[in-house]
Amino acid sequence: MNYDQPDKIIDLANFSIGYSGRANVHKVVKSGISVYALKGELVAVIGENGIGKSTLLRTISGFQPSVGGDFLLYGKPISTYREKDLALLMSFVSTEIIRVSNLSVFDLVSLGRYPYTNWFGKLLEEDIFLVEEAISAVGLRGYEYRMVNHLSDGERQKVMIARSLAQNTDIIVLDEPTAFLDLSNKYEIVHILHQLAREKEKTILFSTHDLTTAIAESDRLWLMLGASVEQGAPEDLILNGQIDSIFHSKHLYFDREKGDFRIRKLTKRDAHVNGEGIALGWTNKALTRNGFKVVDSTVPADITIIVDYPEWTVIHRSRQTKFDSLLSLCRHLNSLDR
Amino acid sequence: MAQTVSSISNLNTREYRVLLIFAFLVPLIFLLDLLVGSYYISVPEILNAIFYPERANDQVVLIISHFRIPKAITAILSGAALSVAGLQMQTVFRNPLAGPYILGVSSGASLGVALLVLGTGGLLGGSLVSIASSWGIVGAAWLGSGLILLLIVIISARIKDIMTILILGILISSAISSVVNILQYFSNESMLKSFVVWTMGSLGSVTNVQLAVLFPSVLAGILIAFLSSKFLDAFLLGENYARSMGMNILFARMMVFLSTAILAGSITAFCGPIGFIGIAVPHIARMTLQTAKHSLLVPGTILIGALMMLVSDIISQLPGSESTLPVNSVTALLGIPIVIWIIIRNKNTARL
Asked: N or C: which end of chain A has fewer CB within 10 A?
């Protein structure tokens, strides 16, 4: 049975990306890309550095010619659209930080009205309304007359998103919108994108290195792997194990339960841990980091740790030692000989 | 919503008020510029000579109408033209240090003129005053500056680093100066003389006949700049953003470079190379107007550029003295501190 809806906004079939060189010799970065995006979906493009995420998004945005395959936009080949028509359908946010002094938030966002205004760029009442609405949508109301170069990186990225909202397109393509941001801004930006997809039914494509936010917020992942490009809901790709193959590293593995990548640790010794509550969980984490494997009482172990927050007791060779922090506990454990 | 609309119009009135102050200052400084010179003429005499020439002293009318007014008008035209050229180059190259002089566009114009004067020296001789030869000179300068602009466009498509482009621009300027030197070396005495006279060109050397060529040229260049203000705004975000908003990059670039070549070429053709006005003035405009919108910056740079050149001209007259300084030395001394300030500020904050 086929559950796929037919209204594919962006549809790539056997698509190739790369750079065109001299005399029609193409340097193909990636070929055989067959993925799509539906209306109102937030799509995260995931993959290793240099695998072609940026190239793919830039090709979709029309900054780079495709080097093969089909790209249907609303069911029609991309080549049938003129640049002016595309500006009404698709807007773009780059990873580059815009450094222009004396440019106010309002003026930058109003540049999004470019395809709609007259030769001199005069804003009509409707344009001003849409610009204000876009600024509010990213939570920057009251920032209208601040200068863009006085904003923080996170605020500036929100302004760029507001600009693309003012352009009033059904599709927004963002190339690593969270690249330079700290953790809280990363979450906030991706959350804004999620809401825009939900509330305004926009189809939003963004590339990112941050798997946790991508898995938490996006509807669909385009997983760019060495040999192929896979797509699906993040949870589907976790369950079928495809997400494991993103990073070709022996030391990394995907923790399916916790939904995140972890560094593989060699376990040196077994330990029993008794206790309860949050403190028990964090104690286990600290032990794992230090190369101890927490085992249950059926397996013999020569170390026993009793968690009684805010106190820990280590029993080793019938000697008891008490600790008031995990830091001192771990230092002690590492110094124990076999 | 009604509130936001009114607050926006309020904001614009503040910018228009600043423009109005500059617009008021220009005629004032213009009059001051008419006042200074090696021969003292009082304000009533000047006004008389302008408005009632039949009642005024013939000699005063001659000085005012044939020397001081053309020179002051040339100052306004050159200040406005070089500043608008600089503004457009800074925006399109997204480089705060771009300007017609520093990137070699002015020297491209000199090369054009050198090739014309030294190549056809026999034909034109020393008679660079006729209207036909004025158009010839201006055309050669346009071609020369247009060619260098094209070269810089090709370079900046490959190299993104601002400082590298700047260094290449300086190298191009030096290379062109060498070519001009070689041309001079191989030309005969009379050709050389007419060329050297041209290179020493100043605001004062522009005759009324040449003004008849310079004025419409500068007007055309400025008109194109006005028509490009929406393109220029989009260029602020870079070409990818501009294209994603539906701008025809090729057409927009052609408009901007046509205007820049006409403006920088025309001024260099008649006044010789004048440096640092083109870099400094756009920054003063952005600072005083507190905006990056070109619909305001273009008129702003026109007015501030005109003021800067009028002031430079007044300083070059060395009020109270009979001698005059070369005006391009004055503009350099006024402009270079501003350029230094831009470089220092740029290290820690914004680009444009």
From this structure: N
